[in-house]
Amino acid sequence: MQFHKGDKVRFLNETGSGVVTKIMGNGMMMIEVEDGFEYPYPANQLVAAEPNNEKEEEGKRRPDSVQLNAINSTIENRAAELFIPNYTDGIYIAFIPKHQQFPSAGEIELILYNHSDYDIYFAMSLKDGRDWSCIQSGSIGPRRNLKIDTLTPQAIDDWGTLKTDLLFFKHAYYEHRAPVSDQLKLRGVKFFKDATYTTDLLTGKRAYISEIEILEPSTVEKDANPFLSNDYINRMLAEKEKTMTGKKFSIPHLKNQVLEKEIDLHIEELLENWTGMTNGQLIAVQLKKVQQELDEAMSNRLQRIVFIHGVGNGRLKTEVIKILSECKGIRFQDASYQRYGYGATEVVFY
Question: What number is the average pLDDT over the span 158-172?
């Protein structure tokens, strides 16, 4: 059966209905469901919904431009609700406790925020042995969000590692952005602590926010805040280390007579709160941590260190490699793929 933009359809193999918003080709349709979210569906899994009355039937056959204007108007109105002035554009995961006064006392909502002008396709997966198992996928329009699940801190701990894959696009001409794949290690003990949750402008509630990708095209040199001094960065790093009871990097330990250390550069492991900071400022903090750890490793005669920078768009890894390329007395390479995937760099001192 042939469908047109604006046609109301029902899903053949599941409950629910929606409206065709785009003919994608290759037998795929973009469908907007009742809650306002859009998902791609194969045309052969859709059937025409029966109109309730003659007026609805007439509306189905209106010109595509009329139908699209109505849909776009709805999207724009929703988009305005999620625009937060001075909040860095990006894709974020928010852990929002239902009990705001005592956050650790109840369930936690996991919400994916698209605070950008891009549409995104996303897939979220959990580690299952050596493989991954997808728990949620779909698309989110610009300046919108999607509830992924409701969990207890114990259930979050059972998840282990959450991987989020992103593709960016727009329905008009747009600047290409590379796909993103980010892994977040989840520790349930963190979510049992009320201090983990702070009031955030993005959610308007007490929440724990983890960035997946910051969408700002500038470089470190262009973006860096001249007032973000080394002393300021050192203070932030020192405060972070004082407040965290457990760090994602290991304390130097003796293994086969070789001192090793593992450093996680994800920003949530370095700062308690990075609201309002630009991408350049965030990377400046991460690179400051790299230099600090290199200096300490040389002073303490460590023989091996692994920097976990994640995959993302590759920008942080590129900047880390620049620093390592200027260091003497070391060699570096991609760390073990089996253990870190493509998201870490190993440094060996000699």
Answer: 91
What are the C-alpha distances in Å from 107 to residues 78, 100, 207?
A: 26, 10, 12
CB atoms within 10 A of CB 45: 13
* pLDDT value at residue 333: 92
Residue 109's pLDDT band, with cuts at 50, 70 and 90, is very high
Task: Tell how far CA 69 is from the center of its chain.
Answer: 30
Structural tokens at position 218 = 């500038």
Domains of the chain with CATH codes: 8-81 (2.30.30), 90-214 (2.60.40.1600), 220-349 (3.30.1370.110)
Query: What's residue 141's pLDDT?
Result: 92
Distance CA 316, CA 29 (A): 36
The tokens describing 295, both together, are: 């200096």
Half-sphere exposure of 328 (CA within 13 A, CB side): 0
Are the C-beta atoms of residues 294 and 231 closer than 8 Å to each other?
no
Structure confidence at residue 243 (pLDDT): 55
Phi and psi at residue 30, in whole multiples of 5°? Answer: -95, 120
What is the enclosing helix (H) or strand (E) of 156? helix 153-159
Mean pLDDT calculated for residue range 315-330: 90
Nearest to 162 by CA among 190, 136, 140, 197: 136
- What is the DSSP secondary structure assignment for residue 85, as one 8-state letter? T
